[in-house]
Amino acid sequence: MITLSKISKTYTNKVTALSEITFEIMEGGVVYVLGESGSGKSTLLKIIAGLEDSDHGSVSVGNEIITGPSQNLAPGYDSIAHVAQDFKLQQFWTVRDNIGKKISHYSKVDKEERIRELLALCKLESHADRFPKELSGGQQQRIAIVAAIADEPDVVLLDEPFSNLDLPMKSEVRKEIISMLRALGITVMLISHDPAEALAVANSIILLRDGKLEQMGTPEEVYRNPISFYAAKFLGPVNELSVNKKNELIRPEDIRIVSSGLYEGQIESTTFMGMHYQVYISSKLSSKALLAYSSEALKRGQSVRFSIA
């Protein structure tokens, strides 16, 4: 569905936003683009959407070659919907009008049917005649996205769509929106700073580092088999330790605190995290305390034995 070949972009201030980015995305998937601020995530989405020119390389969506503003009088493509982080609903239009304006070229009957369909899809049928200021942040987010897909695009690009929502709402809205887009068979690419969100939702993860493609793969691949220390740390907590004269990177969940454990250590600190306790263990395996998870409240200074899965 989406193919990038050696996409590069350098801004006039000589800041390299993207360097030789190449990948393919299959149709109908949900792809998370991760990376630190300044890693090139937003630039990548804008180039794919045809809203920004690349310096080198090519982008195609389906069988269509995507070009930027320098080659198009009206930048962008009908088959690609791009929703910016600071999405703006028209505050003096009703929900119905915010959606309807996106499909003003439909016949009146078809437009009304499509609006009803989209409102049902995002579970806001009873809100059709309300104004955006009368909606919660999560409801506004849903309306912005269904408005973007009103004209039935093949691809939706979302720039940090859930960043402005509080944690309980974020989880619920994310689940509803991603389920909605999956049900429609739309290919989705979205930017996030939240690795846990990407691991829970994505079919595929793209990790950018300083404008370069650090790693791409399924959530399990990038989490369990990171190709670099940077990738390992970005996807979640990791311990550095020495086992059998080799340096290893070990996830906290792979350190098991058991009485029959091969290694011994001492609890440095314990923090209650809800479903588990987060503990730091000092041991001879590492100059730094090892992060592990425990179902029990262990006391500071307590001696423990542990194994490594």
What does this protein structure show overall?
Helix 4 packs parallel to helix 5. The chain has eight helices and 17 strands. With 309 residues, it is of the alpha+beta class. The chain starts with a strand and ends with a strand. The longest helix is centred in the middle third of the chain and has 17 residues, at 167-183.
Write a compact overview of the structure shown.
The chain has about 300 residues and is α+β, with helices and mostly antiparallel strands.
In angstroms, what separates the terminal alpha carbons?
A: 39 Å
How many helices? Answer: 8
Classify the secondary structure makeup into a structural class: alpha+beta
Radius of gyration: 23 Å
Query: What is the number of E strands?
Result: 17
What series of H and E elements makes up the topology? EEEHEEEHHHEHEHEEHHEEEEEEE
| CA-based shape | globular
Helix amount, in percent?
25-40%
Content of β-strand:
25-35%
Largest sheet: 6 strands, mixed
Poorly predicted parts: none
Q: How much is the average pLDDT? A: 90
Spatial order of strands in the largest sheet = 6-7-8-3-9-10
